[in-house]
Amino acid sequence: MDINFKPLEAEDMARLEPYFQLRSNLTCDSVILESFLWKEYYQAEFAVVDEKAVLVKSFLHGGHQGALPICRKEDMAYYFHLEEQYFNEVLGQDFNVLMGDEPGIEALNLAAGTYDITELTDMADYVYDAESLRTLAGKKYHKKKNHVNAFLKEYEGRYEYRALTPADKGTIWQFLNRWENGKSDDVGQHLEGEIVGIHELLNNLDKINAKIAGVFIDGQLEAFTVGSYNPTDRMAVIHIEKANADIRGLYTFINQQFLVHEFADAVLVNREDDVGMEALRKAKQSYHPIMMVRKFSMQQKR
After folding, report:
1. Superfamily assignment of 125-293 in CATH?
2. What is the value of pTM for the model shown?
3. What is the third-level CATH fold of 6-123?
4. Are 84 and 97 within 8 A, CB to CB?
5. How many Cα atoms occupy the beta-carbon half-sphere of 108 within 13 Å?
6. Who has the most CB within 10 Å: 28, 100, 126, 132?
């Protein structure tokens, strides 16, 4: 089969990005930056087919994993079965999809009994109303607003929010080292994979379409965030958000300011999943999501 997978590199991003905009998709996987940040963790490879679709293959837990094709909705069934054929004939294994969104799976029009489809309850994405997170208006955001006001009062004249550039790479690295050293030793592979992805991003900032910002206090970086934009759904995707947890209101402040300054046109905000971690779940729920975007794994039955 004439499908040539290759590892995702920074130089590929500009060519591949338009394919991600060919259909509505409210998951964090709707933007290419998500794939780039986790490419080492998942050993992700991509193939462009017919200049109409991007197929994705990864290697995790000792086996190959597939993904829903990145293409127009009406082309999904064709390219899904093309990758299925590749898995069956070239790799010699059943096709499986690590994670797929519900509308994407529905677009495949699969025959009954051909796939086991399982909801990944810990991987649902939290999606919010962007204007609510920009303004923090209303009773349900009263505590968040109080945290921000406390931050502004405590650090008046001492803080600076600004977009970050490749020139800030060393400063970001220093912050990440401090942040990581403050975590327990049992953070696990997921966090390690995230840090690897951030370093890969920082090494290629000049080649990648990403929004990055930070908050400095007394000249020292104390919070750092990374996002990208899904123009099809007018949705900001917040991939990374790290802050000094000892500074009251800092997490809420950078969350708010990032949307105000970098994503003023966004209608929705995807703040990704909680990977089953209770502390993350509580934090994400405290911002009052307007929807949870479900994801599913798929396993071929033969």
Report:
1. Gcn5-related N-acetyltransferase (GNAT) (3.40.630.30)
2. 0.95
3. Aminopeptidase (3.40.630)
4. no
5. 23
6. 28
